[in-house]
Write a structure and sequence with these properties.
The protein is mainly alpha-helical. It is built from four helices and no strands. It has one domain. About 75% of the residues lie in helices and about 0% in strands. α1 packs antiparallel against α2 and α2 packs antiparallel against α3.
Length: about 80
Amino acid sequence: MPNKYVGYAHGALFITYVILAVVLWMEQKWSIKKGIIILIASLLPFATFYVEKKIPKRCLCCLSVRSSSTKLSKMSC
């Protein structure tokens, strides 16, 4: 029975990762190659840690600034 709930949580987290990866891909206007690499990383164990190291921190900061202030939303990453 606990396996059922862990499976549901794992599936929900996976779907969330894929949706957020696509949103980040579109928001940052990354190339198709980079987007495909991010999506493939979701299928390989621990590959997301590799991708996380490769994404520049400034891009992730830009996303949080954009969502908190409309004046700063014109910042380019």
